Amino acid sequence: MKHAWGWLLLAACGGSSGEPLKGSIAFTYGTSMPKMTVGSAVEKKDMPGKMVVQIGDDNVDCGTDLDNSFASGTFVFFTVDATTPSTDANAAIAVEHSSGGNISLNEAGGNLTIDTVMPRVTGSLTFETTDQDVGTISVSGNFDVKRCF
Q1: Residue range 109-119, pLDDT digits in tens
Q2: Alpha-carbon distance 52 to 63, whole Å?
Q3: Where are the domains of the chain?
Q4: What are the φ and ψ backbone dihedral angles of 76, each rounded to 5 degrees?
Q5: By three-state DSSP, how is residue 29 classified?
Q6: Contacts by 63-67 with C-beta closer than 8 Å and gap 24+?
Q7: Which of 8, 20, 108, 139 is the most buried (most CB within 10 A)?
């Protein structure tokens, strides 16, 4: 019976699946405002010394690689140096939204700062673009995600 209570509490809290995101990311996707709750940093398979930082509203953990696959939910991700903190005023930042079998991917330049790369990846970002179907897409705030390699 104690296991049933655990599942009930998880359902009541609306828990998301993945590595918990620390920090505060404000995300606007047209008229919706998905809550970013999970994130991770994984090694970029085809670029030694680089990593993909990925933040989402669900389904982001150490086994996720948004740079090479699609998942269900709303995500922001970008590639950075895996060894050195840095700042880039025009970093390539991607936003993916998947719902009901439809996938939308937008990429544009944004302001990105990586403060630490070990043992966790921390930093801040500001990104805004316009999608002809969705409207304004914006992401801003601080993040702290688990480094998975």
Answers
A1: 999 999 999 99
A2: 12
A3: 16-147
A4: -130, 135
A5: strand
A6: 64/18, 64/40, 66/94, 66/96
A7: 139
